[in-house]
Design brief:
The complex is a heterodimer of chains A (70) and B (393). Chain A is built from two helices and no strands. Chain A has helices at residues 2-17, 42-52. Chain A starts with a helix and ends in an 18-residue tail after the last helix. The mean pLDDT of chain A is 80. Helix content of chain B is 6%, strand content 56%. Chain B has two helices and 19 strands. In chain B, the strands form two sheets. Chain B has a 16-stranded antiparallel barrel. Chain B is globular, with a radius of gyration of 24 Å. The relative contact order of chain B is 0.12. Mean pLDDT of chain B is 90; it is low at 19-29.
Chain lengths: 70, 393
């Protein structure tokens, strides 16, 4: 519950702290390295981590299903 | 494997030839609605691990495993009469792996679950974006098949951008309907179950991304997942403290809640900081923290080197105990070290070249990336992975 509150607080701060950035001002933000997602080449390491660790999800990958996890 | 490589090469050249087709008509409205190749990605990786806590042999024995994986994905777009953008994607993946521990399911025959096996996983996706309303709807379908496991998945997604394009909310709903083939260790056959048992997963993923300023953007991600059905693996042995042994037995329901925060910051003109934190909890008593930091350094506008480091820590689940520690009268038991208490470190480097004119002057080769990582787990498991990506555009 405490962690949920903390994430809600961070979300609220995000809304307040942000400034409006015009599309033409997004030179840095549009760089391919700035993408808010895993790289394509991270797909395989995310896959083995899904097998070798108990936690999964919240990273754009799977939270279960799709493999027998041998 | 040679056949797979030849097929991949033939597919590569067929894609190249399709890029080189000339469009015969000059009518722009007609061309806009024509199906258009956006990109093709070839990904391949080699993974190898060593360890001595194999779940098949009750938490002792070799975990040696090698996996060679290749995927090819294609993305196409098309505009409809209302100028909405339709995106079509297709992917096929093939994994070939060998596993020392799976040999121990039945060491005298070749009826092991997967001492070596091939996993094939095709998937399809479609989405439609209305740029005026700034919203996207989509759907996905996927299949994954291996010797002892069949999975079919389907999902829908919705995303909405703010008017100034600085905020985006995305929701995904996904379900997997899976079947586990019941293959017990040879000395425990026939067991209480037989044939195939269902394992279903229902998940929801919600993310909110926000541009903070010209250099910083962040995203909050919350997933919820419910798994039901046969959640154990039937060939994982458990040795009890009275000298007897059986197979892993776990509850038939698992609720997972991972929460993540991702941030990307462009520092100066050459360095980017990519950060990720995840908190995870489930009703099997497992909690985990993941921190990932990556700093791409742009040597030129087109070449970057990215060192990365990932720290992971998990508490063990309630039903884990090592070799000969469980008592036979417990309701649930497992000696799978993947669900034990441990910390892990994963570090490495990736090298990426991006060129709109073609990397190394090769036509349409937009991106080439090589990534290497070394993984070290406090239980003694060590692994290495190398991956290669080639993007054609």
């Amino acid at each position: 519950m405490k962690k949920g509150f903390l994430l809600s607080f961070i979300a609220s701060m995000m809304m307040i702290a942000c400034s409006s950035v015009k599309d033409y001002q997004k030179v840095y933000l549009n760089d391919s390295e700035m993408e808010l997602a895993m790289r394509k080449t991270e797909k395989f390491e995310s896959n083995f981590q899904l097998y070798r660790e108990g936690a999964s999800g919240a990273n754009g990958g799977k939270t279960g299903g799709g493999c027998g996890c041998n | 494997m040679l056949r797979i490589s030849l097929l991949a090469t033939a597919f590569y050249f067929s894609i190249l030839s399709s890029f080189s087709q000339n469009v015969g008509r000059s009518d722009s409205a007609y061309q806009a609605r024509k199906l258009k190749f956006e990109e093709v990605n070839f990904l391949t990786s080699y993974y190898h691990q060593e360890g001595n806590n194999a779940a098949v042999t009750g938490g002792i024995g070799s975990e040696k495993l090698s996996d060679f994986a290749t995927t090819i994905d294609v993305k196409l777009t098309k505009r409809d009469r209302r100028n909405r953008l339709h995106t079509f994607s297709g992917e096929i993946g093939i994994d070939y792996y060998t596993s020392a521990s799976s040999d121990k399911v039945d060491p005298l025959t070749i009826s092991s679950a997967s001492s070596n096996d091939v996993r094939v996983y095709p998937s399809l996706g479609w989405s439609v974006t209305n740029e005026e309303k700034k919203q996207t709807f989509g759907a996905t379908a996927a299949v994954s098949s291996e010797y002892d496991y069949l999975s079919t998945g389907a999902g829908v997604l919705f995303s909405k951008d703010s008017k100034d394009n600085n905020r985006q909310f995305t929701a995904r709903l996904q379900t997997y309907i899976d079947f586990v083939s019941i293959i017990y260790p040879v000395e425990l056959r026939p067991g209480p179950e037989s044939g195939q048992q269902p394992r279903n997963t229902y998940s929801g993923s919600f993310s909110l991304s926000q541009v903070i300023n010209k250099r910083l953007q962040v995203a909050l991600i919350a997933d919820v997942a419910l798994q039901q059905g046969y959640l154990s693996l039937p060939f994982n042995r458990v040795y009890f403290n009275d000298g007897s042994h059986g197979v892993e037995t776990l509850p038939d329901v698992r609720f997972k809640l991972p929460l993540g925060l991702r941030a990307s910051y462009f520092m100066g003109d050459h360095v980017i900081i990519r950060a990720f934190y995840r908190y995870y909890t489930d009703d099997w008593g497992l909690t985990a923290h993941t921190i990932n930091l990556e700093t791409p350094i742009k040597i030129t506008p087109f070449i970057s080197i990215s060192p990365f480091y990932r720290f992971y820590e998990q508490s063990g689940m309630d039903y884990f105990a090592p070799y000969e520690i469980h008592t036979p009268n417990e309701a649930y038991f497992s000696s799978d070290y993947d669900l034990s208490k441990f910390t892990s470190h994963f570090g490495g480097i990736s090298f990426r070249v991006v060129s709109p004119d073609g990397v190394f002057k090769i036509p349409h080769l937009n991106t080439l990336e090589v990534r290497y990582g070394h993984y070290d787990r406090s239980t003694g498991l060590v692994s290495n992975i190398i991956a290669l990506q080639a993007k054609l555009k």
